[in-house]
Amino acid sequence: MLADDLKTLLATEYAFVIKTQFFHWNVEGSDFYQLHKFFNKIYEEVYDNSIDRTAEYIRTLDEYTPGSFERFGELSVITGQLRVPRARLMLEELLADNQTLIDLLNHCFDSAEAEHQEGIANFLAERIDAHSKWGWQIKSFLKENRG
Ligand SMILES: [Fe+2]
């Protein structure tokens, strides 16, 4: 059901934003400044362009949105990071989480199409594009950090 898929998406987007912000605050090493800025760009883009819109689409479908750490923790398919990884491991973890988000977005897109919610499907397609771009950029950082 699309509304339930969007609740999972909302929680997972939040988990992704929180983790990226956590990395922004705690990254260290020779690439500190670049990564600090890069992580900032990611969480701002995801927050600004997806969180509120996802929540309001849930309301459009006449369901209430989740809105607590506890509920988001239950729903998110991305797990939180309790430790502070090295910079390279932060990038590897974000790349994997970003792919998890793309897979979830594709699943939501299929549900939207099945329920003839073309507007929501368009929004989800935009978000797949945005995360594909983040995936490419994260991968590019990993190449520079090789060795
Ligand atoms: Fe900051």
Structure description:
There is one protein chain. This protein is mostly helical and 147 residues long. The protein is built from five helices and no strands. The protein has helices spanning 2-26, 32-60, 69-75, 87-114, 118-144. The longest helix is centred in the first third of the chain and has 29 residues, at 32-60. It is globular and about 50 Å long. The model has no long low-confidence stretch (mean pLDDT 96). The structure holds fe (ii) ion. Fe (ii) ion (FE2) binds next to loops. Residues 24, 40 line the site of fe (ii) ion (FE2).
What features would you highlight for this structure?
mainly alpha; binds fe (ii) ion; 147 residues
- Helices and strands, in order, run as HHHHH
Gyration radius (Cα, Å) is: 16 Å
Number of DSSP strand runs: 0
Ligands? fe (ii) ion
> Which structural class should the secondary elements be placed in?
mainly alpha
Shape: globular
In round numbers, the mean pLDDT is 96
- Sheet-strand content, in percent, reads under 5%
Q: Distance between the terminal alpha carbons, to the nearest Å?
A: 45 Å
Q: Report the uncertain regions.
A: none
Helix content: over 70%
